TrEMBL record, chains A, B, C, D:
<comment type="function">
    <text>Catalyzes the formation of phosphoribosylamine from phosphoribosylpyrophosphate (PRPP) and glutamine.</text>
</comment>
<feature type="binding site">
    <location>
        <position position="451"/>
    </location>
    <ligand>
        <name>[4Fe-4S] cluster</name>
    </ligand>
</feature>
<protein>
    <recommendedName>
        <fullName>Amidophosphoribosyltransferase</fullName>
        <ecNumber>2.4.2.14</ecNumber>
    </recommendedName>
</protein>
<feature type="binding site">
    <location>
        <position position="365"/>
    </location>
    <ligand>
        <name>Mg(2+)</name>
    </ligand>
</feature>
<dbReference type="InterPro" id="IPR029055">
    <property type="entry name" value="Ntn_hydrolases_N"/>
</dbReference>
<feature type="binding site">
    <location>
        <position position="402"/>
    </location>
    <ligand>
        <name>[4Fe-4S] cluster</name>
    </ligand>
</feature>
<keyword id="KW-0004">4Fe-4S</keyword>
<feature type="active site" description="Nucleophile">
    <location>
        <position position="14"/>
    </location>
</feature>
<keyword id="KW-0808">Transferase</keyword>
<feature type="binding site">
    <location>
        <position position="303"/>
    </location>
    <ligand>
        <name>Mg(2+)</name>
    </ligand>
</feature>
<feature type="binding site">
    <location>
        <position position="454"/>
    </location>
    <ligand>
        <name>[4Fe-4S] cluster</name>
    </ligand>
</feature>
<keyword id="KW-0460">Magnesium</keyword>
<dbReference type="InterPro" id="IPR035584">
    <property type="entry name" value="PurF_N"/>
</dbReference>
<feature type="domain" description="Glutamine amidotransferase type-2">
    <location>
        <begin position="14"/>
        <end position="240"/>
    </location>
</feature>
<dbReference type="Pfam" id="PF00156">
    <property type="entry name" value="Pribosyltran"/>
</dbReference>
<dbReference type="InterPro" id="IPR005854">
    <property type="entry name" value="PurF"/>
</dbReference>
<keyword id="KW-0411">Iron-sulfur</keyword>
Length: 465, 465, 465, 465
């Protein structure tokens, strides 16, 4: 009976943004710029919902569609979104399928009028929750966990005095990772999962409060970072100001380490740690664990560049940019087929011969998936005259799935799941190879509680599988 | 408390289509051609959902969007819709607002997997039903009655053995007009409201059963009309064949007369009456009630042409086509502004001088809304040499709103609601004017039970206003 | 050497429009509405060029693209076209190929600044002219005759005092059919070929002069038809008014009969003959030549309707509309494949059973091309109960190509080129069949000089083939 | 009389590509990838023309439009371009106006069939040439110099034995900068202006010859750089192989220094000098001329990064990446208005606080235009804790216009044309400011002849102004 209720494989790796300008200014442009700054967290679809809190009840307008923020929003549709309260969402593309229906924020009518919700994360008890709902006669328009969260809020709202109370009750039922931003016509509510698996931070600009998945979105809109929203904390912003509720808090924390390794933007700061610093420390740790006799250090753009700098600092070697990256090769690029002589890697990246000729090179990246790209890059470096290429990976190999909404490559895609390091080294043609040690993950971020289940199989929340 | 729950003003005047090919052939092309034939019932949006009944559970695919059938569906997206069971919908455009979310068929996940629903009609107890649902914690993605129907089906399905049983229980709760086509992964269910306000008919092509709002859609796909689905009847088609359930039937009937006057396609047959014949009879009745000393009869294309023929037959006068209609003036046409010398009417219709010169003309149409178009046409006819123009309207003046989903013009748009016939005659510049008498509406369709509330304020179902 | 210079097979069947408002009002909307009225003459591409004659030299703006007038022009691009002098063009689609470059009006820079040109027709000495030009070093951007005309005008303009003089000299060189509208920054020039093969007429609205391929475009913009531009006449409109030049005139005339049979709009008047009247006379002539024992006459929409009326008048039989035509089946419609049960004809046209049941029917159309559509229609009529179907064609069979730019079906497409009338009758399943007699073509239009070369192989201008 | 012939202000800064695969393989994908690699040279429009040299005469197909290569070309249109010989073009956007007509390659019919032409550069005698042509009766479809070149080739072709000969004769008439790629149905011709103002290089891949504006395009398609095409050299590729003609050569050379400063891709090599090396040398020269007491060096992404590295090397200071660049901020991005609090600069670039805090920083870029962006960046650096910011510019101030097709900012846009260095320093808020000395331009590229007229007003070819 259980398996009839399908849970979509669509990953919930996304970015959320919310703003309430108590002075009553239009916020749609700020949501737009905030989403532009969170675009790296999701490129499949995006959306903005605003409410004119001074207007009559339910004066809500929105626009969402498949595409990048800069493609979906144009002067003409952005200028139609009037209101001093707004939320936005960018969604990660993991499949090519058309999923316009899954675009967020969700906008729903319920007992109290309209509710909008933007969610980053994944629930581990989604199947049980869905079962509970469908046995109560629920219908779903999307295949997202987010709609289930919305449902529980709506159900609880029937018996509660406020939307916050309904959100709190819902938060007690759902298990998993979430950074949630919820908007009723006159209230902005943001809540973060008790383990702090997903990031969420709070900022201020004049008399406007801003919440966002990452602090870079605050900078983008000219807001100051006040602090991270704490794990298990719920923030409510109304015309009267801001309130915090920490009923859901617990002691144990498990911040997703993958945000620091790869996902978050280099200029963001999360839970007190700058992403840049964490990556520098990752490179330093690599250099200590796997030194190399080399003339220079370089990184694969953009994913390996910062760890490469850290490696270079620790090793006392010069850091050099060995590759030119063609920024015009975008999503709609037609990839060369097998028959054609051009290479996708070479079209995106080209070696700067002057930099690498006759050099022994340490090449840093954050992961090796199939190994083909890395093999190509090593070949290009050697073709341009590099004498040796020592590959260093600024994370351990992924070996276990993520149940909290981060899209780590699956086992069958990963060369590391079926080959030894020495086999991989030979396959990619490197002169040496070193992966970061699991114990150094903690080094990256200091004494923060982290989730590194994808490396060590220790899940802070039982995924029930 | 009550008014917080908004009911959208979007009219539910639409067309529905369903087909189950028991021999297992792909039905998406037939749904496409069926919808092309029902396009006159709705031009705002359209959609097709299909299920591969032989495939694994829930193997459902769909596509829907704003636009005409020929705009929304292209080889590339139509060819991706595989399945032997399918339903489709065309929706009427009453507002310019973007309502992509309201496009049908609705596709939902519920306790039994997937459910798709296409609805033509409007409920009169929608507010009460919505209140009941939201107090149970329901959330709504659309502003349509149709989503409420889907909700009740889902709720009932929890406690019932089959989708038909859930549909029946739902039908007992909802009051209003509906032609409903519902699809579960392996079942096609069609149900018609007990008064028969909305049309729905049944056809067959080899081993495939077809349901549609109008018989013209059966012809289009090469199916034979078996019969109308009876008011209050529910038809179920499965791999085993077809079943009928008449538990909801009642004695009283109230077929919408507006379908015969204007809305249905000329070549359709509904509840035993050919639309063409009804319009001919309307014209004949007009001629008896309001004869005219004239040389010829003509009609406003396309709405007045058939009644004009009927008038001509009864009056023993020649019927002539006095206007050329430019079929390229479509939806995206830029209308002349007040400043410009061109006239919208003249761009769409031009008089054939040879036909009208020196003639006394009877000009038939099915309604006069603001009167400006009619005044223009009369001016054009006289400008081309017509000596007299006697206007005859093949329906009484609309005076009361329709609560069952038909988009009759509202009072403030209607010249007839604030002027006498003589005033109207003068305003449009006609030599005489006659509206069909209310008693002749019955003449059009024989002894069938009809709803003519928009003319006489007698509503078969209490609208509760 | 000769054959290296390719002449495109693209047919020059098009519509042209020009207007100069001496009072200085913007004309782009009028060009737009004029082109909407000429849309039947060409659906492939369209364009508008305007000049602000009061502005600085060469203040010309334009927009053109593939598509219908209503698709190519939107408020946003139309409102950017400012000027009191403008010309426009609609082009006929004979191939599916992308020919954006061939869209007209042509807009060119030449010795005197800018020149725009819109051309309806085809030259028979295009190859010789092109040879002359290329041997002088000319380059061509399009594959149209029109560019050659532009070239000669530019060449002549070097040595002449005015653009009219250059146009006249060019007209002496080119042989063939043309309705030409030419615009320099402050002059509108219109010229018609000496035989009058292509139509061109002149109208006036207040202080604005209008030229157009057909008079229906004058009506559309509220202009009065002054008269046809005479064969061999050149009209020039400037701020000072209008001038006529008849130097090119000759005695012999050869107005294209195909305009009256099919191509021109029913409400146009050309060279003194109303198109409607000509088609009525065609039907009458058919009825005299091929009477039938029948109960009613009908026509294939829209091409056969008016001749059918003429037949009915002459025969004293009632004319009836036997078919319902689905006006939503447009250009982007996906046609049924062989495998599918639906029929393209049935999707476009459906029989009104009440009209045809138990009737002996005369069915009129203007041509039979492959015969498949006609066979389908006869089958549909008989399927709906028609007892007999007598087919009458309101033109003789096309047997010879048109070299003057009219797209008559080619021999290999035409059933008539390889079968006797009796064979065709059997193939289409008609009870009798009659084509108009060649001598009756003259009957249609009175004593006007006509070109009927496609029927009788007598070409007024030697096509040189 | 002269000024009536307008020469468009559209700049001819572009990229060209050509390939002939003598083994007969389809080249369209290679042209596509080549253009992707040249996209930095022009983002307004692009086009590809191919010829099937084994097919019948004139078997040419093409596609071009406004937009980036990845937007204009899709699988469906690229796969329709069959041929073993092809050329392509990317055009620089200097105006927002729609200039679809100006998109290249130009495709023309002329005496010998079809000719396609792609041009990078600008002529200084365009007005005289145009006058000569229009007095011969020429007509122009575009407002580009390129069409004039095509015209002269066509004219000369009438009297010459081959297209090469016609190109040579044309080259003798035109004065200015050009990298030209010309294609007749079975020949690829490439020619470079005698001063070598514009770049053009030659490569080989198996049995295919490739020409391109930059060597990076050769790498992209897997071709080896053979050598630069020499100034004044013409290369012809046919089925028989490759020929060189140096009749146009002269002694004096004047390679555009702006290519090395900014325009060319970092991984290209031009006239024997690697662009990367030139920029490193620029940075070194700056460091010698304007040393600074600083803790680190950084560059404005991407324009200042490499010179910053050179500065750091010479100064013995660490190079650091101080900014995060948001690569999703593209062309369609809606820029903040004055009213909005967000800043365009901050949305594109954000400071990495960890890198700059408490540091004395050398900030390198290649130019200062209005100064507002630089002021913003300095403010951002100081806001993030930088103690001092010393600005170094890796080129002298632009003071004179470029007549050869490079889009250098005009005087009224340039802060340097109306302010002293000290004024600029104060306006941007820098602690010190240094521009590269004019004499160091030569240092960048060794003893190559260069054009640096935009800095020193010494034009190698008299612009005639």
């Amino acid at each position: 009976m259980k398996n009839q209720l399908e849970i979509s494989g669509v990953k919930e790796e996304c970015g959320v943004f919310g703003i309430y300008d108590i002075d009553g200014k239009d916020v749609a442009p700020s949501v737009y710029y905030g989403l532009c700054s969170l675009q790296h967290r999701g490129q499949e679809s995006c959306g903005i919902v605003v409410s004119d809190t001074k207007g009559p009840r339910g004066n809500i307008s929105y626009h969402k569609d498949l595409g990048l923020v800069g493609e979906v929003f144009k002067e003409e549709n952005l200028s139609r979104l009037h209101g001093d309260l707004g939320i936005g969402h960018v969604r990660y593309s993991t499949t090519g399928a058309s999923t316009r229906e899954n675009a967020q924020p969700l906008v729903l009518n319920y007992i109290k009028g309209t509710l909008a919700l933007a969610h980053n994360g994944n629930l581990v008890n989604a199947e049980q929750l869905k079962e509970e709902l469908v046995y109560g006669g629920a219908i779903f328009h999307t295949t997202t966990d987010s709609e289930m969260i919305a449902y529980f809020i709506a159900r609880e709202r029937v018996h509660t005095a406020s939307v916050e109370e309904a959100v709190l009750r819902t938060a007690r039922k759902i298990k998993g990772a979430y950074g949630l931003v919820i908007m009723s016509p006159r209230k902005l509510v943001a809540v973060r999962d008790p383990f702090g698996l997903k990031p969420l931070c709070l900022g201020k600009r004049d008399n406007a409060y801003v919440v966002a998945s990452e602090s870079c979105a605050l900078s983008a809109v000219g807001a100051e970072l006040i602090r991270d929203i704490e794990p298990g904390e719920m923030i409510t912003v109304t015309a009267e100001g801001i309130r915090s509720n920490k009923e859901l808090q617990q002691k144990e924390r498990a911040h997703c380490i993958f945000e620091y390794i790869y996902f978050a933007r280099l200029d963001s700061r999360m839970d007190g740690v700058k992403v840049y610093d964490a990556r520098i420390r990752a490179g330093r740790a690599l250099a200590k664990a796997y030194p190399a006799k080399a003339d220079m250090v370089t990184g694969v753009p953009e994913s390996g560049l910062t760890a490469a700098r850290g490696y270079a600092m620790e090793a006392g070697l010069p850091f050099e940019a060995a590759f030119y990256k063609n920024s015009y090769i975008g999503r709609t690029f037609i990839k060369p087929t097998q028959q054609e002589r051009e290479s996708s890697v070479r079209l995106k990246l080209n070696v700067l011969e002057s930099v690498v000729k006759d050099k022994r090179i340490v090449l840093v990246d954050d992961s090796i998936v199939r190994g083909t790209t890395m093999a190509n890059l090593i070949q290009m470096l050697k073709g341009a005259g590099a004498k040796e290429v020592h590959v260093r990976i600024s994370a351990p190999p992924f070996l276990y799935p993520c149940y909290y909404g981060t899209d780590v490559p699956s086992n069958d895609q990963l060369i590391a799941s079926s080959h030894t390091e020495e086999e991989i080294r030979q396959m990619i043609g490197a002169d040496s190879l070193g992966y970061m040690k699991i114990e150094d993950l903690q080094t990256m971020v200091g004494d923060m509680g982290i989730c590194k289940a994808c490396f060590d199989n220790r899940y802070p929340i039982d995924p029930g599988k």
